[in-house]
Design a protein that fits this description.
The protein is mainly α and 52 residues long. The protein is built from 1 helix and no strands. It is rod-shaped. Keywords: Coiled coil.
Amino acid sequence: MRELGDDAAITAVDTAIESARAAAQKRIDELSHELETARAALAHLEGQVTDD
């Protein structure tokens, strides 16, 4: 895009890329939270099994 020299197109592409990056980071954060929740649940279940 930069080779074309169209500043409006460059800005639009940069904005779209930044938006996609932000959405990806948000999803990563959500998945990380889900993983931590699942790990905590698993640890709790493992504790129940060994307590019997």
